[in-house]
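Troubleshooting: if your tokenizer reports a length mismatch, compare your output against this known-good record of 205 residues.
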Amino acid sequence: MSEKVVDAVDMDSGRRKLLIGATSALGAVGMVGAAIPFVRSWNPSAKAKAAGAPVQADISQLEEGQKLVVEWRGRPVWLIKRSQEALKRLVAQEGILRDPQSTDSKQPGYAKNPHRSVRPEVLVLIGLCTHLGCAPVYRPELEAADLGKDWMGGFFCPCHGSKFDLAGRVYKGVPAPTNLDVPPHMYVSNDVIVIGKDADDEENA
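Known-good structure output:
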């Protein structure tokens, strides 16, 4: 065999080894890269760790009739500032509600009142229908044509037609079995509310 042929064979062999080595290295990197998401999935993320933690909301800019939405435990929590007129209408609606005194509904003891909140003017609700978990629509207008003459503002679930008043109390004759849930909540200042914690938690800490 000539010297040129030997050199060519050696060159091809060297290239082959180089390509095999590079491919193996890339394959190993790819396997590690693919494994990283799985390894990470075994450890809870910071977001997951914080999912059950209380959250704070600044309501200093919340005006009458406005709704602010925050997330707590992966669920939407509504903060709504009600006017004095809206609070007065709550009493007038009791005859059309399934559970006006909130005896069968989920809320802290301090929210077991007609306005279902610590402060009468600030409503705090989990924004999920108690029927099948759809998101009701905030409908603050009075006597809405599509909701009837007895509509005095509240929440309408478009999935199956459940209606709730401006305290989250469910109407009679709709699919939702109970009032909208009220999460634990407390105020740390005049303008800052904490969702997911209340004064009882502070006392027991």
